[in-house]
Amino acid sequence: MRQSFGERFDVPDGYLNTASIGIPSASAGEAVAAAVAGWRSGAGRAGEYDEYVERARAGFAALVGLGADRVATGPAVSALVGLVAAALPAGARVLVAGGEFTSVTWPFAAQADRGVTVTEVDLAQVGPRAAEFDLVAVSVVQSADGRLVDLDGLRAARGSGTRVLLDATQSLGWLDADLSWADAVVAAGYKWLLSPRGVAWMAVGPELAATPVAAGWFAGADRWAQIYGLPMTLAPDARRLDTSPAWYCHVGAAVALPWLAGLDRSAVHTHCVGLADSFRAGLGMEPAGSAIVSVTRDGAGERLAAAGVVSAARAGAARLAFHLYNTEADVARALDALTP
């Protein structure tokens, strides 16, 4: 059991795979286990889970720097991005990064029959070219290799009328950056936010259209009074985009997100990036300011696995991720595996 930032983590030595699956705190894991035990014994009551949904929503809002009334919840990033894609006018022009994670790009590509075009450019060109497009959809930190997008360039383009959707799945929880200016910020919970898989959130600005194509009872203005029949009366805020929640996922997220939001963001950033840059230095690589490191050496993944280091294979490289429960001992183990 490791202690980090006031929480306990039952994380194994050499676990450097948060970019794939984050390890929950003991508190979050115990909360989910208790909820499942209540389910098994018939103690759970549907209305009681609303409290957990709202705690998690508030935690996400605090991490992004917005009010909870701006945050919608759903099952996955692609489902939430799809609400924005469905609302684009016919013929809209969308800019994305080449090699971007498909949950960000495919919802827009699926609108091709309405004349929506999606243009891929190198990540370094996303900021400079953003003003040429109606909307930019891009990850703050690239899943494959940890590269950061030019947030300043995107913010400037937004000032000239371009809408900006940011996927913060690989950044929120460790990156100390202001994202509150974006038109939409979306993130899945099961990586750096240390929540169960099956829940995601999207903060939506007042100027960005999003269509509640999966509207159901949970999006109602008075959800428990509107579970049958018409007319449809949706919530007046971002909750109108909600879909029915995976209860036990929100139980864990209701512990994880408020805790993460209450940490010193600068200290978390320094810890995570410091470990990653220490690892990079040991391999003779320049610092990159990212908690994700991509290693292209032949056989890197196999050598890491043989040494008990858990990483991921992405885009032909071994991907390592350093979060708040990792230590210099994890860095040393990975370096021992990769250096003579």
UniProtKB/TrEMBL annotation:
It comes from the Bacteria. Keywords: Aminotransferase, Transferase. InterPro entries: Aminotrans_V_dom, PyrdxlP-dep_Trfase, PyrdxlP-dep_Trfase_major, PyrdxlP-dep_Trfase_small. Residues 41-282 form the Aminotransferase class V domain. Pfam families: Aminotran_5 (PF00266). GO terms for molecular function: transaminase activity. PANTHER family: CYSTEINE DESULFURASE, PYRIDOXAL PHOSPHATE (PLP)-DEPENDENT ASPARTATE AMINOTRANSFERASE SUPERFAMILY. This is Aminotransferase class V-fold PLP-dependent enzyme. It comes from Pseudonocardia zijingensis.
